[in-house]
Every structure is written in structure tokens, then in C-alpha cells.
């Protein structure tokens, strides 16, 4: 299953970009990272179908790493071929996008800059795939 982060804003050469790259290189699942301007621009169509769309949103559900891995594993096992993770600009996502999404995900109640959210998401994608593969990296407590 393709894991696809689609984010508003440019990460460019930055510490957050280096973290994103570090975890993207560790992923054994197919991975893509797409950037959109802060405003305007169109979300690219899915490369594969069926697909699921996850919005990172303050109104979303906070999940443990194990729950997140289980969700991705279930979608993979159901034949989903692409999982798209959308990160909005400063104002987040509109009501229409939230209603269309298959899942709303948040990284807790704090607000995170979109550059950090990308790096954190990349790490959690790697962690989830490691959990699903039974890799010893992840230690649940």
C-alpha cells in the first residue's frame, strides 16, 4: 500500500525536512511526499484505487501507535492500495474536506507546525509498518 503525505507549504531544506527524509528512507512500504502551495493548488488524484484519505486535524482522533498500525494493517488487508495523509495550512481543513475524509487524526490537543507534523507523521508511518512487521524497534509499554 502506498503511503502518501500531501501537505500544504514547502518543507525545503530544514531540520524537519531532514527528519522526514530519514524516516521515509526507512520505510519498506511505497512512500510519496507531495507539496501544495499554502493556498490554491489541487490535491493530486489518487495514484491507486481503492484509497483512503486521512486528514491531520485538531478535531481528529488521537491514537496510540498500535491503534494506528492496526488501522493501516486493516486497510492494507482489505485491499486498499493508497493511503493519503493530508496536512493543511495554518487554518487547517474545511468542513467539506473533513466530511469526505475516511479518518481524522490528531497528534494530541497541542497545535503543531505543519513542518513538524510531517516529520512526526513520517516517523509514525515507519513505526506502524515496523509494528506490523514485528520489528523490535517499537516497544509498547
TrEMBL record:
EC numbers for this chain: 2.1.1.177
Q: Which UniProt keywords apply?
A: Cytoplasm, Methyltransferase, rRNA processing, S-adenosyl-L-methionine, Transferase
Enzymatic reactions:
pseudouridine(1915) in 23S rRNA + S-adenosyl-L-methionine = N(3)-methylpseudouridine(1915) in 23S rRNA + S-adenosyl-L-homocysteine + H(+)
- Primary place of residence? cytoplasm
- What domain of life does the UniProt record list for this protein's source? Bacteria
Binding, S-adenosyl-L-methionine: 56, 88, 107-112
Q: What CDD domains does the record point to? A: RlmH-like
Specify the enzyme's EC class, one word.
transferase
KW rRNA processing (keyword) present = yes
Give a GO molecular function annotation for the protein. rRNA (pseudouridine-N3-)-methyltransferase activity
State whether keyword ATP-binding applies.
Answer: no
Question: Which compartments is it annotated to reside in?
Answer: Cytoplasm
GO CC annotations, alphabetized: cytoplasm
The record describes its quaternary structure and partners as: Homodimer.
The protein's role, per its UniProt record:
Specifically methylates the pseudouridine at position 1915 (m3Psi1915) in 23S rRNA.
Query: Which family is annotated?
Result: Belongs to the RNA methyltransferase RlmH family.
Q: What is this protein called?
A: Ribosomal RNA large subunit methyltransferase H
Species whose genome carries this gene: Novosphingobium lindaniclasticum LE124
Gene that this polypeptide is encoded by = rlmH
Amino acid at each position: 500500500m502506498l503511503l502518501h503525505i500531501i501537505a500544504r507549504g514547502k518543507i525545503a531544506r530544514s531540520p524537519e525536512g531532514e527528519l522526514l527524509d530519514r524516516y521515509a528512507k526507512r520505510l519498506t512500504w511505497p512512500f510519496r511526499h507531495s507539496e501544495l502551495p499554502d493556498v490554491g493548488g489541487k490535491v493530486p488524484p489518487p495514484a491507486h484505487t481503492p484509497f483512503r484519505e486521512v486528514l491531520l486535524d485538531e478535531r481528529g482522533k488521537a491514537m496510540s501507535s498500535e491503534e494506528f498500525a492496526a488501522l493501516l494493517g486493516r486497510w492494507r488487508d482489505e485491499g486498499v492500495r493508497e493511503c493519503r495523509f493530508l496536512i493543511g495550512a495554518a487554518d487547517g481543513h474545511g468542513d467539506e474536506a473533513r466530511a469526505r475524509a475516511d479518518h481524522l487524526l490528531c497528534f494530541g490537543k497541542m497545535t503543531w507546525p505543519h513542518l513538524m507534523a510531517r516529520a512526526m507523521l513520517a516517523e509514525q508511518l515507519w513505526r506502524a509498518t515496523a509494528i506490523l512487521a514485528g520489528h523490535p524497534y517499537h516497544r509498547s509499554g
